[in-house]
Amino acid sequence: MKSEPLCIDCEKRLGHLESQELISHEAKQLLEHPERVIQAELPLSRDDGTLEMLKAFRIQHSTKRGPAKGGIRFHQEVDPSEVAALAFVMSLKTALLDLPYGGGKGGVQFNPKEYSKTEIEQVARLYMRAFSDVLGPHKDVPAPDVNTTPEIMGWMRDEYAKITGADEPAIITGKSVAEGGSEGRGTATAMGAYFILKERFADQEPESVSVAIQGFGNAGSILAKLLHKDGFMVVAVSDSRGATYNKAGLDIDAVSKHKSGGNKISEFTDGESISNQELLALDVDLLVPAALGDAITTQNATDVKASVIIEVANGPVTTGAEQVLDDQGVEIIPDLLANAGGVTVSYFEWFQNVHEEKWTEDEVNQKLQGMIADSYHLTKQAAQKHKVRLRDAAYKIAIERILN
Ligand code: NAD
């Protein structure tokens, strides 16, 4: 019987590439199915003495280029088709950056906000017990994702050591620096996007480039600081509660201080309070969605006035919106490339663990800059050669690397 793809998004994306004659039908068939889907039931003993069974998954999309690589998320909406889609993206991202990895992803279907710390630790350890056979430094290397932290990675590493009798830090990445993590991992995603932007705007004075950033969390706030320090004119930033705008440029360090003091971004004294939707519609050179997926849809795409969008978030521009933006001449630097700094420094962490090395933050950032700039230029050249969008070019490069 013909097997139906688990991931509808992957099928659609690959179908689009096939219709553009960028990949063959066989390539589509091969990649729309993950290599392996493993499901487990985790028996969690709650603090009140009751037993709860939690669904858990590990999906290895591809191990052709090396061990599967990808995070583990703890979220009540985790399901196999979502995990398969995320694992597929990891295969492409690692291939685009030419890392010696495949792609994987995992998850546990529960809301950690409703559980105690000891229960969460138990879930982490149960996860490792359930999947230890298929995980390993040279088989499949997990990392943090939504709601999973360096501390959780530490528990998983410890449990793996208990099961195998050998303490191998390279079993997992995203550990704290004290537990074998890498310098520069915390800033890696923003740093990767920043290095791409330095290449993209190399022929312009940073002061002449106006920027609006949606999302002032780990990725968005660090990127805002890096751009501001470099002289870019960051005119607006937002979080889930609203945005602040100053046409002459915001003092990002002051915004950061204001926010960390528990104040609302929209109440920043040296800026005008605007809505999140107004931020997306600002007349700026660069728009940075760094919050959630599906931020720009067919509903608001025509309002976008920016000439360049860099997708720091995963999937912030829907497929329908991309067509609209394309017609408006907006250039999109795709998530596959834009937020690949994180997995690249995860690879550095794994490499340092395997080779018992310790790199400084400067070394990490220097190596990251070289790899991310190379991948950006390669993607740009492929887009020009095939007369396609950067996203399609990035997919084509990654897929050819996976299949050859
Ligand atoms: P985070 O939780 O630290 O920050 C998210 C920010 O977005 C917060 O400031 C939040 O208030 C804001 N936000 C939420 N809804 C919003 C809305 N409607 N309008 C404006 N702001 C809103 O998350 P993060 O780690 O910075 O990740 C941001 C995005 O980048 C996510 O899509 C994530 O998948 C992607 N990403 C992050 C990493 C990483 O290493 N941090 C790696 C790859 C991809």
Structure description:
The chain is of the alpha/beta class and 404 residues long. It has 2 domains: 146 residues, Rossmann fold (3-Layer(aba) Sandwich); 151 residues, 3-Layer(aba) Sandwich (Rossmann fold), CATH 3.40.50.720. It has 14 helices and 12 strands. Helix 4 crosses helix 5 and helix 6 crosses helix 13. It is globular. It starts with 7 loop residues before the first helix and ends with a helix. The mean pLDDT is 96. It binds nicotinamide-adenine-dinucleotide (NAD). Nicotinamide-adenine-dinucleotide binds next to helix 7 and strand 7.
Superfamily (CATH H level) name of the largest domain: NAD(P)-binding Rossmann-like Domain
Helix % is: 40-55%
**CATH fold name of the largest domain:** Rossmann fold
Principal-axes geometry comes out as globular
Number of helices: 14
Number of strands: 12
Structural class: alpha/beta
Q: How far do the termini sit from each other?
A: 28 Å
CATH C-level class of the largest domain is Alpha Beta
Number of domains: 2
Q: Main β-sheet: number of strands, strand sense, barrel status? A: 7 strands, mixed
Largest sheet, order of strands side by side? 9-8-7-6-10-11-12
